[in-house]
Amino acid sequence: MSTEEKSLHFIEQIIEDSISNGFPKESLRFRFPPEPNGYLHIGHAKSICLNFGLGLKYNAPVNLRFDDTNPAKEEQEYVDAIKEDLQWLGFNWAEERYASDYFQQLYDWAVMMIKKGKAYVDSQSSEEMASQKGTPTQPGVDGPYRNRSVEENLTLFEGMKNGDFPEGSHVLRAKIDMASTNMLMRDPLMYRVLHRHHHRTGNDWKIYPMYDYAHGESDFIEQISHSICTLEFVMHRELYNWFLDQIYDDTKVRPNQYEFARLNLNYTVMSKRKLLQLVQENIVNGWDDPRMPTISGLRRRGYTANSIRKFCEIIGVAKRENIIDYSLLEFCLREDLNKTAPRVMAVLDPIKLVITNYPEGQEEWLDAENNQEDESAGFRKVPFSKTLFIEREDFLEDAPAKFFRLSIGREVRLKNAYIIKGESVIKDDSGEILEIHATYDADSKSGSGSEASQRKVAGTLHWVSVAHALETEVRLYDRLFLDQAPDSHKDKNFLDFMNPDSLQVVKGYVEPSLATVKAGDKFQFQRLGYFNVDKDSSVETIIFNKTVGLKDAWEEKGKKEENLLMNTQKDLNKYVKEKDETAAAALLIPIIENIKSVDNYSLLVQTVTKNIKNDNNALLFANLIVQYSDKVEINSFDADVVQKFYTMSLKSQLASVRVAAILNLKNDAQNFVLFEAVLAELKNVEKNEKVLALLN
């Protein structure tokens, strides 16, 4: 195998094999087939890059086909948004097609199938059809209308088409095999009655084809050679082929379906239904809210098309489902923006810095590099004056040894300017610092080459001149969910994991070079992260969106919370060993506070689960998490885990474990009833006064 062949993903290998076996390369044709019932999200980007990437690789046409077969959920707005997203990502389609273009042909084929005894009109209710369809382990049974005559079926189907019947009264079903081991083959629906306005065909049709019927037949009409779907369509492939068998003409290309693993990204949801819920309930501000995983939301937040394409390239094309870390998407973005985004200075939490020995009324325009990663980016001028804004967190009046920013008696460099030394502060009556006073070394100007300018100091701060600063609105966006898999937990609604700090709006100040920015412009705010200009900006107010930080704050937070729980469990050992009750109570307070501070639901669930074992301290830790964390509840766990949790805890030799378990049971009415007999038995043998007091 050549080096090139080794680098091929499995779909490329399938195509190469097809060509090797005589399939004409000029007959290759692909398609991207979105349903226009919502905006595209990052998961669709993987499919887009795959299909259009194959088109580019093999110089083959790629159709954009809207599978618009459900007018109840589809709108022209979605069609327009999808086209805009594709063009922004950098892809051009060969032909713009719609499944609705083929409604007459699909109807004619359905009539042909009725005449051949391959389809029939069923007049059962949906509940009756579901009942007669059987289960995965039990075959279905023939419905009462399965053997209607061809003439009756044709009459009813034409009546459905003409709008003679209400919605839900009749459906057209394929006549396949009610005993098939594949439940999708048990006489699947082909058409349903819908008295709905279609965004393209208006009110011409009163019946609409089901996706499984229309999809493969549309591929055949367009002569798609390789129909690429995600893994949930594996079981649909048999049905895809059955429908093709009914119409296939061996003088034409027969489409073949292939499946790849969809993109699963942590800390988000990919369901269009759930994304629509976020929009409809005004939890976010529309489909293009910068917190949404939609392509339009990512674009508005400041993501680049190149970063998304790179992300899809890195994750590759696989046959097995896996979950991709959101941090990888952010990494691809940082890599791209680092090369292209101009550096500017902005202050988002300002405090005044007065340089007391700088001449009153004087100002300088200093040279500042636009992007050290791009030599051609050049320099700009930034104004410097006596009174500046710096970040509030960049100053501590009394700082520890490892604080490498400004404090009283310490020196730092102001970026592109001078070395300054903290001298004093002015405070209000409540002790809040209003101004920092410092002195500057006039010989230490950056780039001057003087001895003073080359002096090493602890840190470098960004700043803006108060007299020249532009006031802006800055929207600090963060991940929408606190949990890695918000829609995967039993007895939990995905909305339970919303991040309350996913959007914070602050007033910031930026340097005057940004006076003429326009929507979509991207910058690195030095030391703060990457930001872009939002479309809501106006001549009066510039609005910046935080795109991504310079570092992965979530990875740092995750590690901190993991380390916190590990260290807290170690502290618990000290608590258990402490004989003095007052001292033990004091040790317990920070343990409880640490547990309460952890936001990561999945981490807490995993920690509880792994601590349900024959170890007294581990069981105590698990009980304390259940008792004090407001993120997890006992119904967060499977029934067998809960059974083991209480059983082992109540049998523990450590009285404090039994106490904690009983307290948890008293807040858990359902399981309290199940363990009443165990508690009664414990009462008969218990000797610890605290446990007995709870049992009584």
Structure in words:
The longest helix is centred in the C-terminal third of the chain and has 25 residues, at 553-577. Helices cover 37% and strands 19% of the residues. It is built from 22 helices and 29 strands. α19 runs parallel beside α22 (689-695). The relative contact order is 0.07. With 696 residues, it is α/β, with parallel strands linked by helices. The protein has a seven-stranded mixed β-sheet with strand order 12-27-28-29-25-26-13. Strands 23-20-21-22-14-17-24 form a seven-stranded mixed β-sheet, with no helix packed on it. β21 and β22 form a beta hairpin. The termini are far apart. Keywords: Aminoacyl-tRNA synthetase, ATP-binding, Cytoplasm, Ligase, Nucleotide-binding, Protein biosynthesis. It holds the Pfam family tRNA-synt_1c_C.
Instruction: Count every beta strand, where a strand is a DSSP E run of 2 or more residues.
Output: 29
Q: Count of DSSP helices?
A: 22
Give the biggest beta sheet: 7 strands, mixed
Sheet with the most strands: spatial strand order:
12-27-28-29-25-26-13
Radius of gyration, in angstroms, nearest whole number = 33 Å
Please tell me what the overall shape is: flat
Uncertain segments: 1-5
Helix content: 25-40%
The helix-and-strand class reads alpha/beta
Mean pLDDT: 94
End-to-end CA span: 76 Å
Kindly report the oligomeric state of this protein.
single chain
State which percent range the strand residues make up: 15-25%
